[in-house]
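Reminder: ligand-aware prediction takes two inputs, not one.
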Amino acid sequence: MLIGYVTPIVLVGVAAAIAWKFKALDLGGLATALLLAFILMFTSLPVLYIMMAFFFSSSILTFLGYKSKESKGVAERKGGRRTAQVLCSGGVPAALTLVSVVIPSEYKPAVILAAISSIAYANADTWAAELGTLSKKDPILLINPRIRVPPGVSGGITLLGEFGALTGSALIALLYLVVTNGYRSIPIGSAGLIFLLGWLGEILDALLGAILQVKYVCTKCQVLWDHETHICGARTEYLRGYRFVKNEIVNLLTELLISSIVFFISLYL
Ligand SMILES: [Zn+2]
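Here is what comes back for the chain with zinc ion:
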């Protein structure tokens, strides 16, 4: 029985070493990611492999055009992603997978589908952000398309970012077909659901980001910004939104929404 764990343990070990070498995660982020990986290892290997694909593909895109992102003030910090970021994007799918082991078996497929859909959203969102910030044109605000915002401001979308969201979600849906091959009879419909809800999650994220997330205005450049200091160095002024709602909170909220929607859809359809 233990022999079955050799492959996942080796894969997780190699992934952790690579993440540490390239500073994709800081120490807290790495410890949290390892904890989530161990939960998944003993609850669902397909979800573990899908989660690893999310982690790797998103980390690679983070490094793509890093210099350009740095100059726009939207690059991930050099030390790597933190505990809160890992927990807010990986916590919901890991918790759901843990729940799937203890609930009555008729609910299990719906809960696993909800977990994978929240990973599809997390991947769509990260791909959208990492590709979108490379766009030559400034993003438009989803709730008011006439307003253009600087790259990286929550609630903004670009064509390149939407392409990233669709591709990122599609990758997880395709991977679902691969890792669950022979595990469910007709997984095509559920793969479609994962793909659509992953992408819808990214849209929902942009909406929540625009409405709930704290927004500031740079006193010098007069542009919207998500943080208290603008890249020009000037202080910003509070405009609207809840101060405690940062990007991680929007991610967590969206994952909870998307996984609930998928759970009920797959239960009643
Ligand atoms: Zn400024």
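The beta strands are 140-141, 144-148, 156-157, 215-218, 224-225, 236-240. Residues 2-268 form one domain. We will return to this case in the review session.
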